[in-house]
Specification:
- The protein has 582 residues and is α+β, with helices and mostly antiparallel strands.
- The strands form 4 sheets. Strands 1-5-6-3 form a 4-stranded antiparallel beta sheet.
- A hairpin with a 4-residue loop joins strand 7 and strand 8.
- Helix 9 packs across helix 11.
- It is elongated, with a radius of gyration of 34 Å.
- It starts with a helix and ends in a 9-residue tail after the last helix.
Amino acid sequence: MSLYDIFDNCKNDQLKDYMKLCGGPSSLTRKADRANFLVETLTDPSQLRWLWTRMDDLSRKAVAAAYHNDGIFDSKAFIAQYGSLPERPQNEHWSYHREPIVLDLFIHGNEIPGEVMALLTPLVPAPERFQLTGSQEVPDVLDSTGEAIEIFVAEREIAGLHDLTLYLTLLGRESLKLSSASLRLTPKSVETLVAGLQMGDLFSDAEKAEDAILPYGLTVFCSQSGLTTYKGKLSELANRFLASHDAHLLLQAFESWAEEGKFDEIERIQALRGVRAKGIRLTSPASRREKILEALSWCPTGVWVSIADFYRAIRVWHFDFDLENGTDKLYVGSRSSNPWYEPWATAENQWLLTTGLYINTILMEYLAAIGAIDIVYTYPENETFPGQAYNYDELLYSRYDGLLYFRINPLGAYLFGQAAGYESSQPPTSALFAIAADGSVALLQPNEVSAAQQAQLEQITEGQGERYRLSVPKLLSVLESSADLEIQRNFLRHNNRGELPVEVVALLDKIEADSKALRIATKSLTIQVRSAELAQQILADPKAGKIARRLDDRTLIIPASRESAFRNALREMGYGLDAERP
């Protein structure tokens, strides 16, 4: 819309107020004359400069913020950065009339008109970059009375990689099971996994399997990233990652989760209502993850960043996002049938209890689970979360209320695009065992074997304590679902003291070859016959006898692929084949 059209759509009294701000003549009373005067004033560089000097500092910052945002003024981002909007005169009496300020000549409908934008370049300063800062040390956390709150520090880089390896290893050897209904870990499997997690779960008092944060996050991440199939089988990508522990393969999985994952993490926020309301239109989870991850790529690494500051940064940097697309169905607590008059929380609290908690969910349940960030958190019951709904009586809103700080570690810096490669912060580990020529495995540091390493060792050996031996049956079992033993070979090479004995390499080669010694050519069906005489009659039949073979006097065997032809031959003989029914 042109500048003239903007003023032409204003009421004449509003134009009169604008004229006063410009020092315009009172003799102009016609609407068209006033509109023309305002257009001429705002498109005159010298007049525009004069108006610029008449604005207060915060108003000039508002114009600058809009100018550097393609002319669009984002009030939420501006408040997040500067704390408030420019001050306006207070009316002595309640009125719908809002007295304009000079800022209103520059920004109309949250946008700077194109004619004005073109003239602002020499006036507007460079954008004020909002930069997050962090602390090298874990900050103290106090409650409202000044008392220290119990906090937990989870340094997740090495633990996350361990836990991901453990999850994939246990799933691959079928020590973990997924529910056929939800495709999430069964309660027993959650217990199994938590027992092996390097740091345990974030909270140890989960009453239900779905309340466990890290197991749930690992399961969803793996299924949505291409590391596992829909039904929980390891993919080729997972096998390659287990064989090499190549961070580039994890990056590939991470990008697939971020860009293509369909699971909506919004379902994990317990207090949020309306998720399945009629007519709701939720935005895509990938579009929200994109904004969060982009904001993380702007954050400093290696320092503890306050989650409250991260909320602020997301809005200042224009990475804010909507959970709904054109609807207003989500709420916490209870809401009026007419939310225009009785909202369920203030605008800021609505953002915190929806978008804010969604951000916490992504950070804690997924990014911390795989080791991309370290976190500082407390119990949700400590009520450190800043959001509050009007009509909500529960003590907590979600499992993620207690997130306080996060730190981007070297793995996260790589996954978020801040580093060209990944260099672990953990020094190279020494050998865990020594393998003899006969396949016996002696642990060198029994107390330093992680749960993931133990699971990988038990997958291919027999034994206990400090002495194990490579197991041919177990290695053959691995080959029933894998093309080769590359994962197992790499595990042995990486953790053995010195080179693998040539006898062990030869043994592994022989096991791979012997795994193909027999091949299933055709699947068969066994047929129980009523009598030996009838079995002989069938074998003598010119059609049925060409299909069936004798297993014993009253049992025949046929190729499964010939069942239909066998049935037809039996019908011609006057007999039927009774299939076993459940």
